[in-house]
Amino acid sequence: MRPIDALNEIATLLERERASRYRSRAFRTAAAAIEGLSDAELADGSSLRRRKGIGDSSFAVIQEALAGGVPAYLAELRGAAAPPASDLRRRLRGDLHSHSEWSDGLTSIDLMVSAARALGHEYLALTDHSPRLRVARGLSPERLREQLEVVPQYSGDGFTLLSGIEVDILDDGSLDQEDGLLDRLDVVVASAHSKLRME
């Protein structure tokens, strides 16, 4: 198993079990710190330990993965994860609501697409938040336009990344994004995030 894959899978499993963001982020940081390093560079324990972003736990995972096995911590997390997919789960073809690190998600689009492909999905809709939800770093029109430029590069080989947004429904019933931009999207999820008791 490649060390970078082990670190990213650990981060994903921690995110799924809703562990503290610090823990999952530590493994994502370690994965970023070793990206592009050769196995020989990774095997040089003394320089690896001094590398920013590598802590004791991530160092152990890297060493165990380099030795050819599944790191013990990853095996433990896999064992605690949900049981194998049911027949219904196997029939799912994709996900139409997801958040990336562009808003309040924890994961990059790259990793989300890799995970969706690994699950056998045919599509994933990227539906980051709209601008009104500031606490979630919602996408301004400019940032949404920027994301629209990135999305097409992930489609191909039987997989499609759909462009989208989770847009707030405003007090007057309008949607929290420019109409022209909404027209360009594949998926629009309309949500109420405030004034939920309004009549």
Walkthrough of the structure:
With 199 residues, the protein is an alpha/beta fold. The protein folds into 2 domains: 3-80, DNA polymerase, domain 1, CATH 1.10.150; 88-191, Alpha-Beta Barrel (TIM Barrel). The chain has 10 helices and 4 strands, in the order αααααααβαβαβαβ. It has helices spanning 3-16, 21-34, 39-43, 45-50, 56-66, 72-80, 87-91, 109-118, 141-150, 179-184, and strands spanning 94-95, 123-126, 160-168, 187-191. The chain has a 4-stranded parallel beta sheet with strand order 1-2-3-4, covered by helices on one side. Helix 8 links the parallel strand 1 (94-95) and strand 2. Helix 1 (3-16) packs antiparallel against helix 2 and helix 1 (3-16) runs parallel beside helix 6 (72-80). The longest helix has 14 residues, at 3-16. The radius of gyration is 19 Å and the shape is elongated. It starts with a helix and ends in an 8-residue tail after the last strand. 27% of the residues are buried. The model has no long low-confidence stretch (mean pLDDT 89).
